[in-house]
Every structure is written in structure tokens, then in C-alpha cells.
């Protein structure tokens, strides 16, 4: 059964002025339920993640200061959000959503988080709407507690997964692959195990041909036992924060390529939604909904 992390806290705990792009966290499950792609049995509400799992990835001093709302004004500005207890609680629940999705993936082949993809969070700081790193935390959980020895991170958000790259810089059991717009945030890139910077305006065919060349080879070379897929839809031509020129169909074909390769190779995959900032919320919902539709079709 497809299991999907979702909670009202994903959207409702955000401050005024930051809620429009986060409407997707409520609208997306509504759309998937309405069209019959999922039922309420597919959704699960993650609770608060245990602190010990956060500390397997994040610096203890950073977590203490974040938890106690003691970040400096400069640190808060870099996150993009006004700091609050509600915001921190939201982040911790999102972290557990991806951890639980990864555990469901071990059982069913795939698990998904309607939120997540907080790939700009480093071991000791937050950036770009990310306070903690869900893929980092979930991958470390599998390595430490579930007998997984090799993880592949496939980050196809329009922005480089700089925080994830930093977290696993010295961890040979995790291979980080980021294919992103080269001239976009973050302006200082970290070094992933494999970075593929794309030119502004990259279209469907160029993008998909390149991904088809790279990903099957990566699976052969890395030989992962588990895949984390960051499926941001900020690659769309309509996205306000992206600079690529992909269509909704191209984005769907991207997700199909990744998910079919995982299913064909019997690789469990945990999917985090990542970014999506098109002016029309309908474009964001449709592109994200395609990821869930494909998951149901390919795995079940």
C-alpha cells in the first residue's frame, strides 16, 4: 500500500506572508482523494521525531539553539522564515514524515512525504526555508538502525542540494547526486558526489535525455540499497524561483523515469516533494499530483 505522510501542521503553522506556496500541503491530498488516486488509508500523520535521531545528523549546539529559539537574527534571516516554536515543531514533524516514509518504503517499495525535501539545511545551520534536513536524518536512520549500507540521493529540485551534500561530504555510504539549474540559488554550491548544473532555459528533451544517460549508470556504479528522491516541481517553466523551461508533462516523464528505474531494480525509494513556486497553484498541484499517480501505477 502506498503510504503518504501528511499533517495539517505542514501548512497551518506557517506565518502570514509565507502561506501561498504552502497551500499545496492541503490542496494536494484533497486533489488525490477527490480523483480517487488515494483513500484516507494511504495517509498517515507523523508525530514528533525523537531528538536522538535529529542529533545523528545535526550539530547538538545548533539543535539546542534552534529548539530554544536562540538563533541569531542573521541565522534567522538565512532561513527565510520568522522563527517560532510552531515553525520548529512543524519541521520536526516533517522530519519524521520522511523517516516513516523510508520505513514504509522498506516494506512496500515506496513511501512518500507530501512535505520534506529540506535539502538546504546543513549540519549546523538552516537556509532557504529549511531548518533541518529530512533526507539527511532519514538516511542516517537507515544506516544506523536498519542495516542499510549504501544510499543514493537523487535530488532533482531546481536548486542544488547544498545542505545534503555538506552533511554527507565524508560519508562514503551515501552518494549524493544533484541535477539543478547552475545559475540559481544557492549561489555558493557545495560539492555533491555528482553535480550536474543545467543551463538556464533547459527544456524537456535536453533534461530527460541527460537524466536517462546518467541515472541508470549511477545505479550500476553506486549499487545502492535505498534511494531518496527529491522531486521538486520548481523545474517548471512557470516557476517563479526556477530558471528552467520544463513542462508539466516533462516533469511527469522525469518522475516516471526515476520511479520505474527504482521499481525495476527492486530499490525501495522514499520521495520528498521539495520546491514548487509557480504563480498558479493549479500548476503546482498538477505537477506534484503526477508523482503520486505514478507511484500508485508503477508500484501497486
Automatic annotation (TrEMBL):
UniProt key word Hydrolase: yes
Any single Pfam family the record assigns to this protein: Hist_deacetyl
Keywords for the protein's UniProt record, in alphabetical order: Hydrolase
Family statement: Belongs to the histone deacetylase family.
InterPro entries named among the record's database cross-references: HDAC_classIV (IPR044150), HDACs (IPR000286), His_deacetylse_dom (IPR023801), His_deacetylse_dom_sf (IPR037138), Ureohydrolase_dom_sf (IPR023696)
The organism's place on the tree of life at top rank: Bacteria
This protein's name: Histone deacetylase
Domain Histone deacetylase: 24-288
